[in-house]
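Why run this: before we spend reagent on co-expression, it is cheaper to look at a predicted model of the complex and decide which construct boundaries make sense. The entries below are exactly what would go into the expression plan.
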Amino acid sequence: MAKSIDISDLDIYYGDFLAVQGVNMTVKARSVTAFIGPSGCGKSTVLRSLNRMHEVIPGARVEGKVVVGGQSLYDEGVDPVAVRRQIGMVFQRPNPFPTMSIYENVLAGNRLNAKRMKKDEADSIVERSLKGANLWEEVKDRLGKPGMGLSGGQQQRLCIARAIAVEPQILLMDEPCSALDPISTSAIEDLIHELKDDYTIVIVTHNMQQAARVSEETAFFNLKATGEPGHLVEFNSTSQMFTNPDEEATEAYISGRFG
Amino acid sequence: MSTTDAPAARPTVDDGFGQVTGRGDSVFRGLATASGYIIMLALAGVAIFLVLEGWPAIQATGEQAYGKDNIVLFVWPLVFGTLLAAVLSLLMAVPLAIGGALVISHYAPRPLAKTLGYLVDLLAAVPSVVYGLWGIGFLAPAILPSYQWLQDKLGWLPFFEGPALSGRTILTASIVLAIMVLPIVTAICREVFAQTPTMHQEAALALGATRWEMIRMTVFPYSRSGVVSAVMLGLGRALGETMAVAMVLSATGIVTFNLISTQNPSTIAANIALNFGNASGLKINVLIFSGLVLFVATFAVNFLGRWIARRGQVKG
Amino acid sequence: MTTPTINRPSGGDRASLPLTTPQLPPIAPALSAGLAVGVAVLAGLLLSWSVVGMAVLAWLLAMVFLPTWSLLLEGRRKAVDRLVTALVWSTFALAMLPLLSLIWQVVAKGAPALSVEFFTYSMRNVIGEGGGIYHAIVGTFLITGLATLISVPIGVLAAIYLVEYSSEGKVAKAVTFLVDVMTGIPSIVAGLFAFALFVLIFGPGIRMGFGGSIALSVLMIPIVVRATEEMLKLVPDELREASYALGVPKWRTIVKVVLPTALSGIVTGITLAIARVAGETAPLLIIAGSATSLNWNPFSERMATLPVFIFSSITEQGRYPEAQTERAWGAALVLIIIVMALNLIARLIGRVFAPKTGR
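The model came back. C-alpha cells follow.
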C-alpha cells in the first residue's frame, strides 16, 4: 500500500561535488508533497534520489538514509531496479516510447515482469491505467496508434498511466507540467488530486501557485550561496507555508522577492 | 542556419568600400562554388572514364578475357567471390560491432569508454596492406588447425568440405575483411546509440528496466535505421577492399561455397590488383570493366546506406 | 520456465514487493570466470587440447556459469541482463584481439629489419639480403604530399561553399550527399579512374607518381570536406554577425574570423585524412606501379611507395623469400609508425590548439 518516505541526513554528491546537504523530512503516505525552490537548488536531485534515478548520472552517490515503508533504499542488497519498479516517476517532458503504440506504452512496465500476458488481462490493465490517468475516453478508439501522436498534455497523462500501470507505491513527478499549456496543466493537476487517494505523490514544481493548489505539504529548498550545496530551508504544511512561513527566506521566495 | 543566410541577402554591406571588396567577395564565392562543382565533376569523371576505358572489354573473348568466352563469364565468378567475402565478413563484423558500440556508448564507465573509442579508431588507422601482411604472415598459418578441426567435425556441411590444407582461404580473407570493416560499423553504431534521447532511456529505467531491457526498449528501436545504414556502409567497404584479400587469398577463381578449401573464389578488387601489373592491351580494358562493375555496386550500396541514414535523421 | 523469485502476478493486490532481492556477490563474475578457466584448463589438459580450444571452452563455460547462477538466485530478468553484459564485453575483447596481435606481430617481426641501411638504401640492384626502403619512403612522401596539395584547397573551399555560401540549396544538398557517397568509393576504383584518365591523355601503359596523387585526392577530398564542414558549422553565428556588423565583407569575415576559429579542427581533419591515404595501396599499385630505384620526379616513370613495397615484397618473392618477407615486415612497421604518428599529431593539434571558447 502507499507508503511514507523518511529522509534523514541526506547528502547527494556528483563525484566530489556536494550538490545537496543535510536533508531531513518525512513525506506522508497518500498525500501530495511539493518541492519548490529556485533553479539549481537540488530539488530535482533530491526527488531523483528517492528512486535511485540519480545513479543514472555517472559518479552520483548518496550519503544518509532514505527509508520507504521501513526499508532503507540504500542498504546493501537493495536492487535499484526493484526500487524503481515500486517508485514510479514522471518526467519534465512527456516521454512516451516513440516506437510503441498507446496500448504498448501503457504496458511497457508490466511487460518487463511478465513476458506473456493474457489478452484480457493486458486489456484490463490498459483500461484501468488509462482511466486512472483520465485519458481513457480520449484514446480508447485509437489504442493501436503511436503514443507520439497525442498532444503534449495527453502524452504526459499517458506517461502517468504507464507509471501507475505497474502499481507503484509512490509516484515522483519532476515538474510534470512545465512543458504543458494551462489547460493540460489543469487536467494533470485534477489527476494528481485523484491519484493521492491511492499513491504517495512527490512533485517538484517551479510554479508556486501549483504547489499551493495541489499539495498538502511543501518543502522549500535553497542555496546558501552560489557554489554552495543546496539544502532544505523549510518543510511545512502548504497552508502554513504560503500564509505564515517559519523562515524569512521562505517568505522572501514565496512573495517573489527572489528566485 | 537562418542567421547565416542574412548577410548573403544584403550585398549593401560593402557599399562604402566601393568595388574592390565586392570583387573580392565574388571571386572568393566563385572559388568556393567551383570547388563544390569540382567534387561533382570528379565523381562524374570516375564514372565516365571507367565507362570509356571499360567499354572495349565488351568484345573481349578467349585469351583477352583471361580464357573466358565473354566478359560476363569473366566477371560473374568475381562478383560471386566479392559478394561471398563481403557477406561473410559482415556476418562476423556486425554482431561484434554492435557489441563493441554498446560497450562504448552504454556499458563502459565514461573515462574508460573514451579510451576504448580511441582503440577502435586505432583499428581503423592501420593501413589495409598491413592487415594483408598480418593475414598472410600470421593469421593464415595460425588458423589452419581450426580449419582442419572444422573439416573433421563439420565436413559434412558443404561449407567445410575442405580439403583444409592451407590457411589462405576465402574464410581467412573474410575474417581479415571483418576486422577491417569493424571500426567503421562500430563508429557509426556508437554514434547512433549515443544519440538515443536520455528522456526515453530514463523512462525505461524509471519503470524498473534492467540495463539490457532499457537498451531493447529504447536504444535499439531508436537506432534501427542508423544500424542498417552502418551495415550498408560496412558492406560498401567490404566489397571494395582490395589489399587484404589480394594478399591473403590463394584464389583460383572458381564458384563455390566451400569456405576452407584450397580452391577459392577471387574478388573483383583483388583480381585487379593481382593482374593489373602484367596486363596489356584489351586485358586492361577487361580489368577496368570489372572495376566499373565494382564501382556501380559500391556506389549503389553506399547510396542506399546514406539514404537510409538521411531518412532516419529526418524522422528521428 | 523457472518462476523468478521476485515475479508476482501483475494486477494483483498492491502489496509491497521486497526491495531487497537476492543478489550475487560483486565478485560473482570473477568467480565464474575463474571457475570456467579452471575447468577448461583441466579438461584441456586431460584431453590434450590446444590453448585455443581451452580458451573457447573457458569462455563458453563462463557464459553458462554466471547466468545460471544468476537465474537460480536473482531470477530470469537479472540473468538475461548479466548474460548480455558478459556477451557485450566479450565482443569488445574479441574485436581488440586482432589489433593486439597485429601490433605485436608487426613490432616483433619488423624491428629486426630496421637498420641504417634499411632507411638509406633503395632496392636498386639488390638481390637477396640488404637493400632498403629509402626510395619507397621518398615516393610515399612525394605522392601523399602532392595529393594533400590538391585536396586541401578543393576540400576546404568546397566545405566553405557548403556552409557559408550555398544556404542549403539543392546543389549544396547534392554535393553533401555525393561527398558522403564518395567516401565509400573503393580505393582501387580511384586508381582505375586515374589510370583511365591518364591513358586518354598520355597513351597506354602510362605509370607516374602524380597519377597516384590524383587517385589519392579522389579518396582524400571527401574526408577533408567532411571534417572542414563539421568544424565550420561549429563556429557560432554570433562571431560572423559581429564581423558583419563591423562592416567587414563576407569573404574577409570567412578568411579572418571563421577559418581561424575553426583552424585547429580543420588541421586535425586534414592530418587524419593524410594518415588515411598514406597507407593506401591499391590505387598506387595501379597507376604509380612499383620500382626498385629512387625516383624524385612524380611526373615521369614508376615510383615506389611503402604500401606497394610491402605488397610486392610478399607477392613477388623470387629466390629469396626470407629476405623479401623480412623487408615487408620492416616496411610495415615504418608505415604503421608514420600513420600512428600522424594520428597522434592530429589529436595533439585538436587538443592543444582548440579555440578556448569556454563553451
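Chain B touches chain C through 105 residues (CB under 8 Å). The radius of gyration of chain B is 25 Å. Bring this page to Monday's planning discussion.
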